[in-house]
Amino acid sequence: MAQNPLKIGYVPEHFSTPLYFAKAHFGLDAELVPFPSGTGHMITSIRSGEIDVGIGLTEGWIAGLGKEDAPGDGGYRLVGTYVKSPLCWAISTGSSRPEITSVESLKGGKIGVSRIGSGSYVMGYVLADQQGWLTPSNSEPFSSTVVLNNFQNLRNAVNSGEADFFMWEHFTSKKYYDSGEIRRVGEIYTPWSSWKIVASTKLVSDDGSTFDRRVQDLFEKLDEGIAHFRANQEEAVKYISTNLDYSEEDAREWLKTVTFVEKTEGVEAKVVEDCVSILQKAGVLEAGKGRQPAAMVASRSS
Predict the structure, then answer these.
(1) Average pLDDT, the chain
(2) Overall domain count for the chain
(3) pLDDT greater at residue 125 or residue 25
(4) Boundary-marking domain end, from 157, 189, 221
(5) 151-204: per-residue pLDDT in tens?
(6) What would the 3-class secondary structure string for the chain be?
(7) Does 39 map to a domain?
């Protein structure tokens, strides 16, 4: 019996360009489902069966699987790597918030996040840890965490005062700095490679050693899409600036900063272990509780 095409969740930003190329040029048989609100929303959707595969932020996927209250079998496993370079998170506030002058002035403030467990949420704790705001006696470095679901709500909230700051990818934020809608306070890089591919546990054998053939096909087509992206930068710039709401200049600048993998299948154990270690230090995960790093990854036997 013929299988239905995969439903693949993705964030409709510049990083999605090789995925678009895989479908447009190399016959990827899949329905691409956009999630502008990010990785946290995809976690909910893959667990509910709305999507089969997700391409999202490393820290979001790992935090979702490592939480002590992750439901059942967690709903998904890490199966592949998409972007090798770290992600630059811009730290933003409202354009007329003169009291916010620096990253240091955000201590104890109200952080806006898309969802609990999302990249924007996790990176708040990584920032607090880097700044020395997390201590054994103070595991909550912010006065409140304001859940705002999407990027537009986050921008509105820092201008209304509902939140003091939020973090979002640099180039996606930049046009709103240029327009004066929001103001940049600083930046922080992920201490890990930034994008991973996950598959529903329904598509992975119990021992993680075999994948649904449609996942294998995704790896092959995505590898071709990435190679095409690398070899056809002008086509990438045109697609990003025409379809994804970035200026041509910003698209070209982004291309200088991003490195996609050559082979998408597989996840380095050390990346997961290092990410879990930092998330534990930042108070997002608790040592000795929840799913451990090795149980988060499905890897085919060679």
Answers:
(1) 93
(2) 2
(3) 25
(4) 189
(5) 999 999 999 999 999 999 999 999 999 999 999 999 999 989 999 999 999 999
(6) CCCCCEEEEECCCHHHHHHHHHHHHHCCCEEEEECCCCHHHHHHHHHHCCCCEEEEEHHHHHHHHHCCCCCCCCCEEEEEEEECCCCEEEEEEECCCCCCCCHHHHCCCEEEECCCCCHHHHHHHHHHHHHCCCECCECCCCCEEEECCCHHHHHHHHHHCCCCEEEEEHHHHHHHHHCCCEEEEEEEECCCCCEEEEEEHHHECCCCCCECHHHHHHHHHHHHHHHHHHHCHHHHHHHHHHHCCCCHHHHHHHHCCCCECCCCECCCHHHHHHHHHHHHHCCCCCCCCCCCHHHHECCCCC
(7) yes
